[in-house]
Design goal:
Residues 246-470 form the Histidine kinase/HSP90-like ATPase domain. With 473 residues, this protein is of the alpha+beta class. It has helices at residues 12-19, 28-32, 41-67, 71-74, 77-93, 104-120, 124-134, 141-171, 173-181, 209-228, 248-268, 330-338, 341-348, 373-376, 389-396, 407-411, 435-445, and strands spanning 23-25, 199-200, 203-207, 234-238, 244-246, 276-282, 315-316, 325-327, 349-350, 359-366, 449-455, 459-467.
Length: 473
């Protein structure tokens, strides 16, 4: 149970000022720059202050975005609840906005605020889906897609920043205890015999896509067997032993959604005897100059893609340019202005890993008959029109039997990494059309993507590309 958290009344001026703050991109390098756990107290403070500098403006942008919707849509109780949740989270952060985290006691309390934020927004996607489903007659599908695409991408970053600090905090607790025991002569009581964790917060620096595929296969197979009585099999080709640095929750969500589509198409086409082929192809390493620091600050990410490989390669905070952008507060900008140029360049080159992990492309190939030309152009929409009015009403009231896929069942499937309850499979293979566009949002967030090639009447190839953190010392 969380302790009572101090709050501050959020005014319209607070929201307007924060929403007008300058923007900068968030990268994987930002998340690992504080080092490998267990962190020192100073490193934990740096992580907390970095988190504090970014989140208030992000929350203000989301509040502003919700207020820009038509009033009748915002008046919907589900959408209004999300608006209230963002106001609550901002009210718990504002008491910290005028100070820095400089003690372990403050860091612990700040971590409680982050835990409250994650808990408060745990069901954001499913609640928004219900709200837009109820208000669909008052807002066009194009407006819904545009809003959700922006909102869900921003939510990925907000949740990720909070969860990263929580994970760093939790993995550093033994270190803090050892530091406290050091004065008592117990500093040698470390876990020298234990293998070093591959995690830096929520990022796994030795993530094996093949392991994620097998894990997701087991979950989706059970759903498929419950619904259809059969379970297609998966064959993994390419380089199944390849590992790179990424966020397991994100990859698990994406793979789950892609396998659900492939399994459903394969079974409904009657091709369950044909295996679904998953090919894992590491991205090639590109040699880069050996100079560890650029002579001048790097240009914007879009014009200067991150280098991969090379003995002295370094990745900068401006690389991997994801579309979602975080906000810098005025104190951060003033601090940067006082920082010598070469020191800024040095801190921009993040070197947390031991070897190059440029990224991977995963192809999922099925014999499920492909996607019809009529539906192909709509696969990236957050669509609510797959089900008829009776199904929609049943989903809104939690009704419906077990005879088919219902929208509400699918809402539990858009969970996990930036979704909701941590169960990425849900109870049905059907859905509201959130799975594929949300999966693409996760892939694109750090410079990857999803491409779909359909051969109508035969099958579908889906290409998932993901970028790692890059080689650093």
């Amino acid at each position: 149970m969380l302790l009572h958290l101090p709050t501050k009344t959020v005014t319209d001026d607070d929201i307007a000022q924060l929403a007008a703050s300058p923007l900068h991109p968030l990268t994987l390098a930002d998340l690992v720059k504080h080092g490998r756990p267990p962190l020192t107290a100073e490193q934990l403070f740096d992580s907390a202050n970095f988190t504090l500098a970014i989140l208030p403006a992000r929350l203000a942008h989301r509040i502003q975005s919700l207020r820009n919707l038509p009033y009748i849509v915002v008046s919907n109780p589900h959408v209004s609840k999300i608006h209230g949740n963002y106001l609550h989270s901002l009210s718990t952060l504002l008491p910290w906005a005028e100070k820095r985290v400089e003690s372990l006691e403050d860091e612990i309390r700040f971590t409680e605020v982050m835990a409250d934020l994650v808990h408060t927004h745990a069901n954001t996607i499913s609640i928004l889906a219900r709200g837009f489903l109820e208000a669909r007659r008052y807002i066009s599908p194009q407006e819904v897609t545009r809003f959700l695409d922006e909102h869900l991408r921003a939510r990925i970053g907000t949740r990720l920043i909070a969860e990263q600090h929580i994970a760093l905090h939790m993995s550093s607790q033994p270190h803090n205890e050892l530091c406290q025991d050091d004065e008592k002569g117990q500093s040698n009581a470390s876990s020298d015999g234990e293998p070093k964790s591959s995690f830096i917060g929520v990022i796994d620096t030795e993530l094996r896509p093949a392991d994620i595929v097998r894990h997701c296969e087991n979950m989706v197979s059970e759903i498929c067997e419950l619904k259809y009585g059969v379970r297609p099999r998966i064959v993994i080709t390419g380089e199944p032993d390849y590992a790179f640095a990424h966020i397991p929750m994100h990859l698990e969500y994406i793979i789950t959604e892609l396998l659900k589509n492939a399994f459903r198409a394969t079974v409904e086409r009657g091709m369950e005897r044909e295996p679904i082929e998953v090919t894992i192809a590491p991205l090639p390493e590109t040699p880069v100059p050996s100079s560890p620091l650029p002579p001048t600050p790097a240009p914007p990410a879009a014009a200067n893609p991150a280098p991969h490989g090379g003995e002295d390669a370094a990745i900068t905070n401006e690389d991997q340019g994801n579309a979602d952008r975080a906000s810098k507060t005025e104190p951060m900008l003033q601090k940067e202005a006082r920082t010598p140029a070469r020191r800024r360049a040095a801190t921009a080159n993040i070197r947390p890993l031991e070897r190059s992990t440029p990224g991977v492309t995963i192809r999922i190939r099925d014999r499920g008959g492909g996607i019809s030309p009529a539906n192909y152009s709509r696969i990236w929409e957050y669509s609510f029109t797959t089900f008829n009015e009776d199904d929609a009403r049943a989903s809104l009231h939690g009704g419906g039997g077990g005879g088919g896929g219902h929208p509400l069942d699918a809402l539990s499937a858009i969970s996990g990494p930036g979704g909701d309850a941590g169960n990425p499979t849900g109870s049905s293979l059907a859905g509201l059309g959130y799975g594929l566009p949300l999966g693409r949002a996760y892939a694109e967030y750090f410079g990857g993507g999803i491409a779909v090639q359909s051969l109508w009447g035969w099958g579908t190839d889906v290409y998932l590309s993901l970028r790692g953190v890059g080689k650093v010392d």
